[in-house]
Design a protein that fits this description.
The structure holds 2 protein chains of 2 kinds.
Chain A: H1 9-13, H2 23-30, H3 45-49, H4 60-68, H5 72-77, H6 80-83, H7 89-93, H8 100-114, H9 121-136, H10 141-152, H11 157-169, H12 183-199
Helix pairs in contact in A: 9-10
Chain B: E1 2-6, H1 10-13, H2 17-30, E2 32-36, H3 48-51, H4 55-70, E3 76-79, H5 82-97, H6 99-110, E4 122-125, H7 126-142, E5 151-154, H8 177-184, E6 188-189, H9 203-206, H10 208-224, E7 229-232, H11 235-252, E8 260-262, H12 263-270, H13 288-292, H14 325-328
Parallel strand pairs in B: 1-2, 1-3, 3-4, 5-6, 5-7, 7-8
Classes of the chains: A mainly alpha, B alpha/beta.
């Protein structure tokens, strides 16, 4: 007898898109492509497939429930995205085809923007890495390792010296960075893209 | 001779220089030409997208635009680094599917006087080119020194077979391309259960205990399977499993010695090239005992400075300790 217009209340409760202004909506909008995060069925396959789940504050499944519950600050403070190793196991196993790794990247960038993270080592590593790209166009391992270890791992730094020296003697490390010819062109491209990100 | 546009990536310039050397040494034998993309920039690895979500794609798109401009006849971009492969393939596939992102990225490229039409180029890993374009038959016919008696753990790592939006591999968790390639070289190939498990990625820079745990799982499994060598196709995996295997051993007080070499180095050896040309001898874990099995004499390893023994075990089982002299004498 249904004319196709009646909607079951349960369907409404799990409406497939984030309500306007909700944190879920914000995450969906900030993730390139269709992340399908709103399709999560809380099955936990992601956490069960994750090589570093045991080191995270929350499993990915818990984190996605928190996103739906609009727990913005708790989500952005969570260590979970920073322990993601980008292995894409969760992404290929997710029965709902949620692009989980992409969502983790989105949460990292949102946490950096909001300065909501408890341990600075991972965000600083990303920032140092991209500083070299923006200055030279290429990664520079020696500079990266030195800057990163001096800033965050001073205590472990001496134990890393044999490896560093080994890299040099084996001809696997350069002392000077390489700069690409089109560095100005690259900077203009990146500056424009970063401006577009701010607009949303 | 098939021509390809080649994206080396930052690692192959230095930390993975032996990988590049071995690729250059075998390309002629395989009948492929690799033309380097001029003035390419870093792909951003796993770091750029953690900070900027549109600029991360624009960064990679510049390389695609450069490649498309340089393409004359060749429409396929190939790379030997898994992270570069993932980023290049992901950018092309996302730009094809998300028109808004494509618009934003191309607007950014315009600021540098460039443009990229998504789908214009095919992005493929070098392993894919060798197995599917060159073909195993041709590889087999070029073998002059079969890898007879070498037990090999074929290790793919994560970023080559996943997420695989363009369906280039037979399986995202248990691909077989590298297994099949190593078999035609004459090696004994282990059905390696952890072939696509994580090497630790950038965790070696962020949380060492987490990284050591991941590294140990892989090395322990290869050791249990009595692998002479673990063969890889990714510079990050090589660095983590080779250089950090030494550190992992100190951390857990273990003594694993599983040498980690690139698949292209083993191809070169099977083709009769000498170890030096293929960049062998620059590993932290000496592969010479393994290579001696096939009659290869690798150049003497450059000795790495001796490491100081660790102070006090961390999380490992307690070890019996002999009393020092002063403790015994009353």
């Amino acid at each position: 007898m249904s004319n196709g217009t009646s909607v079951h209340p349960d369907t409404l409760a799990s409406a497939p898109t984030g309500a306007p202004g909700s944190f879920l909506d914000e995450v969906l909008a900030a993730t390139p492509g269709d992340s399908r995060l709103d399709m999560c069925i809380q099955c936990g396959t992601c956490g069960g497939s994750c090589p570093s789940a045991s080191d995270m504050d929350h499993t990915p499944r818990q984190l996605f429930a928190m996103i739906r519950a609009d727990m913005r600050e708790a989500v952005l403070r969570s260590s979970t995205p920073w322990y993601c190793v980008s292995c894409y196991y969760c992404t290929v196993r997710c029965p709902q085809e949620v692009h989980i790794t992409d969502v983790m990247y989105t949460l990292k960038s949102m946490a950096i923007r909001a300065k909501l993270y408890d341990e600075a080592i991972a965000p600083d590593f990303s920032q140092t890495f991209i500083d070299y790209i923006e200055n030279y166009g290429r990664s520079f391992e020696f500079g990266l390792a030195t800057r990163h270890n001096l800033k965050h791992r001073l205590r472990q730094a001496p134990s890393m010296i044999p490896m560093g020296l080994g890299m040099f003697t084996k001809g696997r490390m350069d002392l000077t960075p390489q700069r690409i010819e089109g560095i100005d062109q690259l900077r203009s491209i990146l500056a424009c893209a970063i401006e577009l990100e701010a607009v949303g | 001779m098939s021509e390809y546009l080649f994206y080396p990536g930052c690692s192959l310039q230095r930390t993975a220089r032996p990988y590049l050397d071995s690729i250059m040494a075998i390309q002629g034998i395989l009948g492929i030409g690799l033309a380097e993309i001029q003035d390419w920039n870093c792909c951003g690895a796993t770091e750029y997208s953690a900070v900027h979500h549109i600029a991360a794609f624009a960064l990679v798109a510049r390389n695609l635009a450069l490649a498309a401009r340089q393409a004359n006849g060749a429409q396929t971009v190939t790379t030997a680094c898994s992270a570069c492969y993932l980023n290049l393939a992901k950018t092309d596939s996302y730009l094809r599917r998300d028109s808004q992102l494509n618009e934003q990225v191309n607007k950014s490229l315009e600021a540098g006087g460039m443009h990229y039409q998504p789908g214009e180029l095919e992005i493929r890993h070098l392993l894919d080119i060798i197995v599917n374009d060159v073909g195993l038959e041709k590889v087999k016919n070029s073998v002059v020194r079969p890898l007879q008696g070498l037990r090999i753990a074929p290790y793919y790592g994560c970023m080559i077979a996943r997420p695989d939006r363009d369906h280039r591999w037979d399986n995202v968790e248990h691909p077989t391309a590298l297994d099949r390639l190593m078999k035609v070289l004459g090696a004994e190939v282990i059905d390696f259960p952890l072939k696509t498990h994580c090497c630790g990625g950038h965790m070696t820079q962020i949380n060492l205990p987490v990284a050591y745990d991941l590294i140990r799982r892989l090395i322990h499994s290869a050791h249990e399977y009595r692998a002479d060598l673990l063969v890889t196709l990714c510079p990050m995996c090589q660095l983590n499993l080779d250089a950090y295997q030494v550190e992992m051993n100190k951390y857990f007080r273990t003594d694993y010695r599983v040498p980690i070499v690139y698949f292209t180095q083993l191809m070169g050896l099977a083709f009769g090239l000498d170890a030096d040309t293929l960049g062998l001898g620059k590993e932290f874990i000496d592969p010479r005992p393994a290579l001696a099995k096939i009659g290869v004499e690798a150049p003497a390893e450059v000795p790495a400075p001796k490491a100081r023994p660790p102070k006090g075990a961390k999380e490992a089982l307690p070890m019996p300790r002999m009393p020092a002299y002063e403790e015994v004498e009353e």
